[in-house]
Amino acid sequence: MFPPVDEQLRILLRGVAQIETLEELRARLEWSYQTGQPLRIKYGIDPTGFDVHLGHTVPLRKLRQFQQLGHRAVLIIGTATAAVGDPSGRDASRQGLTPEQIERNARTYLEQIAKIIDIQAAEVRANHEWFDRFRFPDFLRLLGQTTVQRLLERDDFSKRLQANSPIYLHECLYPLLQGWDSVEVRADVELGGTEQLYNLMVGRDLQRAAGQKPQVCLTMPILRGTDGVKKMGKSVGNYIGVSEPPQEMFGKTMRIPDELMPEWFTLLTDRTEAEIQAILSGKPNEAKKTLAADIVRFFYGEDAAQQCLEEWRRQFEEKGDPEQMPEVRLPAEWSTAANVPVVDLLVASGLAASKSEARRKIEEGAVNYGPDRVKITDVKATLTPQDGLILRLGRKRARLRTTSAPQG
Questions:
Q1: Which one of 317, 347, 362 terminates a domain?
Q2: Is 355 a known ligand-binding residue?
Q3: How many CB atoms are located within 10 Å of the residue 17 CB?
Q4: Which terminus of the chain has fewer Cβ atoms in its 10 Å neighbourhood, N or C?
Q5: Single pTM value for the model
């Protein structure tokens, strides 16, 4: 049922940041191999927003590998913990969500996560399932499982203490809640980012106190976002959502800094180290196209990846126009006008936000039109609108439609 343990470890250790402990993981895999029983691999995600992004997929891809090797994925949707807010990796208190926000976000998460793991084969649990049953004595017993000194050992809290930044009591509860999830589902392995190690280790302590064998903690590196600096996140705006259209996903990847490519290839693709080194030894732009196509292919398939590659070449390498672009239907009075100011056309088409921006872009030489890409440099220039005429401002394009043209 399962591949040999060494083969499993070769796959599972790729891209991993830390394991507590490797010896325990090997022992669990040996037991699984000998008994034919799958391990229970836990990963928890709080529904803190509408979009699951590529940063979330790093541990989810590891969960997928465990699934493909025959183990049981246990996905925890943090419907209770999202109300607290995970302090991991934060230098300030994280705002918890309201029940209404959590419910709204949770509805979208499974659909997006299903793009990465086999949801039908996974055990999906919402942690309000057990925390809604907790009574005051249960919380007292849970709080009695750790000390203030232990909590202050974690890097996030110690830094905030030194900076005289507030640490709220509800934040101290979060690691215990996440750890208790592991007791409830009897996790053999828990996955998370490197900033989650403390929470995962608390799970080991709580399992041991509950008479269970402590879980193996396996952490993955934090994916840097499209800016190449900060952790990918919705609040920073440097993310790529797994539900974004293929062209948007491809384009955003093409704009990442070159130095991100080794990290993204390792954490977001299944390519071997030898393949990655061979790709990165070539031209950076070609390597980035390969990376962008790999990412699109994972979520949308081969046809979408090839279409994105062809569209990119046409638009940016052959200087052609994309097949799909915004179409702007002009006001009726413009359909027969011979001299419509280009400044007005840029604003009406949405290419410029204001007339002042339109004038500035014209002066910069960023505006052209038609198949011959006639450049406009006079802010007082006019055009005769023609059905299908393409107007360009930098990389932005719009196809003009006159109201007298047939609808279609």
A1: 317
A2: no
A3: 14
A4: C
A5: 0.74
